[in-house]
Amino acid sequence: MKKNEYIEAKCIDYTHDGQGIVKVDSFPIFVKNMLVNEVGKVKIIKVLKNYAVGRLIEIYEASPYRQVPLCPIFKQCGGCHLQHLSLAGQQNFKTKRVKDTLERIGHCHVGVQPCLMMEEPWYYRNKVQVPIGTQGNTIVTGFYKQHSNDIVPMDKCYIQNEASNQLINRVRILLQEVQETPYDKVTHQGNIRHILVKYAFTTQQLMLVFITYQKKIKKIDYLISTLKKEFPHLTTVIQNINSRHDNVILGDEVKVIDGPGYIEDQLLGNTYRISVKSFYQVNPIQVEHLYQKAIDFAELKPTDEVIDAYCGIGTISLSMAQYVQKVYGVEIVEQAIIDAKENAIRNDISNVEFTCQDAGEFMVEFAKKNKHIDVVMVDPPRKGCSQVFLDQLITLAPDKVVYISCDVATQARDIAYLQEHGYIVDICQPVDMFPQSHHIENIVRLYKQ
């Protein structure tokens, strides 16, 4: 097989990120935007030792799951991966991906429920952070082209909420008007690096964050007064200063320019304060299904004592509180714990205790108390649970563990370890928190043998 060679091939499977897989004499070729069972003309664009990469040139036999992408820049933008695949096709892909990953990495053969899909899978995100740059003399906002630092200009993102789309467009125009300059990664000149917007679906409150390289923003008072007149739901404006020369988006310094520095949203009957660095699930519609499923799987009792590890601003902790005697929430991000404590007060919930600490260290100290814990709820970052955390979880020996994950591969790795130490997975429910992308949230329940 050679570069620039053309082949006719049939797609037989998907990679973890939704690329089609075709094989020639058992040699795999990864083809972006090709769907299972499709036959087409493929151009080989890269040949490596163990696989090749192809480009789909022409489709001879299309999949019944193929659809026309809603977004006109879908192929250029790196934000979405599966707009060409129908909702039913995405459900099949995500359900199979969870099943295959649990079996391959976790050696876990639990029955996987069909992925819980979103009825209207558009305009669902409550948070957007867009890079800002220039093309010629014009300021542009958008998302990076896949595997590059080139911004694909965008006026409308079909998975972001409409309020955020409109606000970002207006900010871009105003920055051009006041002659504020985007930051240049190469020369380290200019100022505005990203625009971040958070939107509360239930209260309609908007937060605008200017992520800057410099300390000051040109004509910031004019910018704010103009935006607040045009966007009455814009309740707070913040500057985040990031003078680093790397790809980290948020800096350490946060300046509240206008408003309280947070917005409020409601979830499963409780009200939550959301600040710049607070983790809050990006799909507020699906997250209620996700958390309710996790709580249902925990089968909580009024006498239960529960640990909520990696608790963030306390959304799961406070949602569980009404069902149990005590909840212990632990999170390493200080601002998130400040918000969590405030959220408990705001919702008049007194049986939750929040601690700012590494989850593994917290479990070590908790295990020393020889106190029985009935359920541990775990929702870690993408890298999964630390070894220290897992070891102390085994020491605590809760009756049930409910593990929510945004990366089924690290979840499967942790499941394999827990299975070696007496736990069995009996329920698995994927939830599509990220329609149009290959990302997936997954819930499993483990119980002690």
From TrEMBL:
Keyword Calcium among UniProt keywords: no
GO terms (BP aspect): rRNA base methylation
InterPro entries to which the protein is assigned, alphabetical: MeTrfase_TrmA_AS (IPR030390), MeTrfase_TrmA_CS (IPR030391), NA-bd_OB-fold (IPR012340), SAM-dependent_MTases_sf (IPR029063), TRAM_dom (IPR002792), U5_MeTrfase_fam (IPR010280)
Any Pfam family: tRNA_U5-meth_tr
Key word Methyltransferase present: yes
Keyword annotations: Methyltransferase, S-adenosyl-L-methionine, Transferase
GO molecular function term, any single one: rRNA (uridine-C5-)-methyltransferase activity
Binding site for S-adenosyl-L-methionine: Q281, Y310, E331, D379
SUPFAM superfamilies (UniProt xref): Nucleic acid-binding proteins, S-adenosyl-L-methionine-dependent methyltransferases
Gene3D superfamilies: 2.40.50.1070, Nucleic acid-binding proteins, Vaccinia Virus protein VP39
Active site per database record: C406, C406 (nucleophile)
Chain ranges of the TRAM domain: 13-57
Family listed: Belongs to the class I-like SAM-binding methyltransferase superfamily. RNA M5U methyltransferase family.
Annotated protein name in UniProt: 23S rRNA (Uracil1939-C5)-methyltransferase
